[in-house]
Design brief:
The protein is of the alpha/beta class. Helix content is about 45%, strand content about 10%. It has one domain: TIM Barrel (Alpha-Beta Barrel).
Length: about 350
């Protein structure tokens, strides 16, 4: 059971999430274990397919640790997928190269919602918990481990649409035509995600993060009712747990910069910001109530090393002095990036923030 951090060799991330002083700005990268790394591609080839890679704890541990061998990162993040919960609900998930996720049995009606399996984390999702336990053991206190889930709204978009979507027409029709059905679905997901994250905390995760990838696709009022309120329920449930309640919680709505003030009030310790939001403006909006994570445009990693270092400096300057900044990309790293450019980014964050302090 994870209860504290006394054996962490590198606690920069934890300290920054708690808005405490650090020797330099901590950095980790969304999708830091992924296709841009040749060693990841080799492990995935051994696995045979993506789902097998996710569902084999030894392989998930291997790829989680791979970026830490290359880069001086301040955190590991569990290698998994946001669709583990819908998969465990029996919707027939398939992930084929070039097609994205697809569900054989999408959720479209009240009867579909009623028939959903409520997954038990230690049975239906045991492979995730086993991976967390194994990664913690292999890390041996080197850096903290981040556990995560997709948000209720984000999971619902895939479950209702049946696949990735550009306009979310089916799930948006549900929230306008059948709002009670949508709320019931989101309620089930909120409960399931809270249990899932709580189990990750008990298995050894030291930070918890909720990825609200598609919250920014909602209108202003709809975001509050169908994305933010369900995430608030998750945070509240986690805070009530004796283990999960002690861990820092990060919430990230991609495209949610206009709602940062409201998001900062749901009880998380940190908010993720994408590259469309100024960190300086974000600090004013949240009144330094929470830490901020972000927010370099992932496309900058296609630039020259000199430009990457300059862009890192711009982000650090935008945040300004004072505690509470975790450097990250504004979204996940893309597959074609040169790993050497990632090293430039990570090293620049540490060097430039240490110089600034």
């Amino acid at each position: 059971m994870n209860t504290s951090y006394p054996n962490l060799q590198n606690d920069r991330l934890i300290r920054a999430l708690r808005r405490q002083d650090v020797d330099c700005t901590p950095v980790w990268i969304m999708r830091q274990a992924g296709r841009y790394l040749p060693e990841y591609r080799a492990t995935r080839a051994r696995a045979g397919d993506f789902l097998t890679l996710c569902k084999t704890p030894e392989l998930a541990c291997e790829v989680t640790l791979q970026p830490l061998e290359r880069f001086d990162l301040d955190a590991a993040i569990l290698f998994s997928d946001i669709l583990t919960i819908p998969d465990a609900m029996g919707l027939g998930l398939s992930l084929n190269e070039g097609e994205g996720p697809r569900f054989a049995r999408p959720v479209r009606t009240a009867a579909d919602v009623e028939s959903l399996i409520r997954p038990d984390p230690e049975s239906n999702l045991r492979y995730v918990m086993d991976a967390v336990r194994l990664i913690r053991r292999e890390l041996n206190g080197r850096v903290p481990l981040i556990g995560f889930s997709g948000s209720p709204w984000t999971l619902a978009t895939y479950m209702v649409e049946g696949q990735s979507s550009r306009d979310f027409s089916i799930v948006k029709s549900m929230i306008y035509q059948e709002p009670l059905v949508a709320r019931q679905l989101l309620g089930i997901l909120s409960e399931s995600i809270a249990l899932y994250l709580r189990a990750q905390a008990h298995a050894g995760a030291q930070v918890l993060m909720v990825f609200d990838t598609w919250g920014g696709a909602l209108g202003h009022a709809e975001y509050r009712h169908f994305s933010l309120d369900p995430m608030a329920q998750i945070v509240e449930a986690l805070r009530a747990d004796p283990v999960a309640g002690t861990l820092p919680i990060i919430v990230f709505t991609k495209g949610g910069g206009q709602w940062l003030s409201r998001i900062s009030q749901i009880g998380s310790d940190a908010l993720g910001c994408d590259w469309t939001t100024s960190l300086r403006k974000a600090r004013r909006l949240v009144q330094d109530r929470v830490a901020l994570q972000g927010n370099l445009d992932p496309a900058v990693l296609n630039a020259t090393p000199e430009k990457i270092r300059s862009a890192v400096g711009d982000v650090l300057e935008d945040y300004g002095p004072g505690p509470g900044h975790i450097f990250n990309l504004g979204h996940g790293i893309t597959p074609g990036i040169d790993p050497d450019h990632v090293k430039v980014l990570v090293d620049s964050v540490h060097e430039l923030s240490r110089t600034a302090s």
